[in-house]
Amino acid sequence: FSVRSLEIFQTNFGDKKGSLLDSIDHTKTAVGGRLLKNFLKSPLVQKEKIIERHNLVNEFVNNNEVTSQIINILSNQPDAERALLRISARTNNPRDLILIINFLKSSELIYFELEKIKNPLIKSLSLDKDTKKRLVSLKETLEKYIVEVPPVNINEGGIFKSGIDEDLDVLRNIKHKKQKEILKMQTNYCSLTNISNLKIKFNNIHGYFIEVTNKNSETLKSFKEEKFNLVQNTVNNSRFQTKELSEVSREIQSSQERSIELEKKLYKQITDFAKELNIEIITLSNKIALVDVISNFANLAFKRNYSKPEICENQIIDIKNCRHPVVEESLKSDLQEFNPNDCEMDKDNFAWLMTGPNMAGKSTFLRQIAISVILNQIGSFIPAESAKIGIFDKIFTRIGASDNLSKGMSTFMTEMTETAKIINEATNKSLVILDELGRGTSTEDGLAISQSVLEYILTEIKCITLFATHFKQLCSLSEKYGCLKLKTLKIKQWNDEIIFLHKVIDGISQGSFGIHVARMAGINSKILNRSKKILDKLANHGGQNV
Fold first, then answer.
1. First to last CA, the chain
2. Which of 294, 335, 227, 242 is nearest to 59 (CA)?
3. Alpha-carbon Rg of the chain, whole angstroms?
4. In degrees to the nearest 10, what's the CA dihedral of 27, 29, 34, 35?
């Protein structure tokens, strides 16, 4: 449910566009895209590994020209893993071998560029000498044997270059020689019969045959000097065979069949050689995938002004001018700017209670903090001016209302089930984000549950927590718990209008401003005016119905 509420892989509407993955995935290869998705599924928790990735990204950022060249090369990198799977499955498409060749050649170009980065870290992206030597041997063998544009099926033949097998060359020469004989035969038959448009053609049913128009058919049937045997009549033409042509046709067909059988044997040998290097190819593919992801992170950092976080031992979030990567890019497309916010939390100040108007930006702020933590722990820079972040073992986010009617679970039951999971599984090294807990039941029940959950987190779990609520009564807890800080979203009132400034500040919300949001949504003015009157009377009557 945390993955869902943070819209990591798809939005709440089920679309990939608008998700975090969609926003940050500018990888150029299929393997790179798969690896980035796996990074998001399983962020790192080891400090050394996170720092290693950050440092790699930093090297790519500092060598922007090299990174740009690598990205260009990656754009044409084929999916060697999929090609290798098809070869292993004996789909028998020789063009998969060309994909392997192109993959190995472009990988060489990538490593040529990587060598320009003079940093020992880059060695982690490299292959050992033996692996490199075996892959070079494979590339040279494939280039030597396979034609540049082979057929898509081994039954067509013509996979291998001339000169690589003596028997294959002999069989091909037979075919070539006999085809020349057929050309001479056609010229002789034209001269002998005085039929200038006589042609010798080929199909899979008759092999080679003589074709004339129906007008000339009788000439061949009655011809005395050569026996022309009728094999087929079509609407416009007649087809004939001669003994001489049949013999040459059989010889060509026999040599063709034998050459294809020989090519199949050679194809099996060379694909077996490729499969023997399965581990080496997959190892290289994994390295290239990592290069793709790291160069993608570097490109994001360079173009979007993401910064390298400092990893801390303690549980801390100290982010300056943090931004939401997806919302920021969406606003840019509308030529608008995102309003960044700071977030400073540590062991003495590990919980924020956030109140604020609807549509003021609470949920966006909550999500961007969680997303920044995730980006940090997959090795990416984050959308912020600077950051010091601890390592979190788990992230729990309960944002928004949802139900699961297929399992008989109401909105509130779903909310409580997810909250129970958070309470039962969170540790003091987790990040917990709760937004509008208790909204699915009565005000009294909701307030009681929200306060109890918050108190349990503050006293038992003691993990970094962002707790957004409309229950302003909870703000009094800050007097009892020094670790709880009160935060709200800044607004500006002007001519009875509310302007949301999307700025997190200390304090308590002045109100929910729900009627203002209703106006923004297009609710009828008659309803809005009545709502204002009811709201004023409720305030004057202490909340009793009027």
1. 40
2. 294
3. 36
4. -70
By the 10 Å C-beta count (0-12 exposed, 13-18 middle, 19+ buried), 438 is classed as buried
Asked if 486 and 353 count as a contact pair (C-beta separation under 8 A), the reply is yes
Q: What is the pLDDT of residues 215-257, one digit of tens each?
A: 899 999 988 888 999 999 988 899 999 999 999 989 988 998 9
Inter-residue contact 350 to 462 (CB < 8 Å): yes
> What is the signed CA dihedral for 265, 268, 270, 271, rounded to 10 degrees?
170
Question: Side chain identity at 489, as an amino acid letter?
Answer: L
Q: Note the Cα 197 to chain centre separation in Å.
A: 59
DSSP 321-356: EE--HHHHHHHHHTT-----EEEEEBTTB-EEEEE-
pLDDT tens digits for range 126-175: 999 999 999 999 999 999 999 999 999 999 899 999 999 999 999 989 88
Local structure of 169: helix, strand or coil: helix
List, as one string, the DSSP characters of 375-397: HHHTT--BSSSEEEEE--S-EEE
What's the Cα-to-Cα distance from 61 to each of 54, 298, 537, rounded to whole Å?
10, 5, 60
In 236-259, which positions are buried (b, 16+ CB within 10 angstroms) versus exposed (e)? ebbbbbbeebbebbeebbebbebb
CB atoms within 10 A of CB 517: 16
Write down the residue that tokens 């590339």 correspond to: 139
User: Which of 44, 8, 280 has its CA nearest to residue 139?
Assistant: 280
Residue (of 419, 479, 428) closest to 450 by Cα position? 419
CA distance 337 to 327: 10
Contact 381, 375 (CB under 8 A): yes
Q: How far apart are CA 325 and CA 46, in angstroms?
A: 24
- Which two tokens mark 329? 């890019």
* Residue 333 main-chain phi, psi, to 5 deg: -65, -20
Rounded to the nearest angstrom, the gap between the alpha carbon of residue 402 and the centroid of all alpha carbons in its chain is 27
pTM over 0.90: no
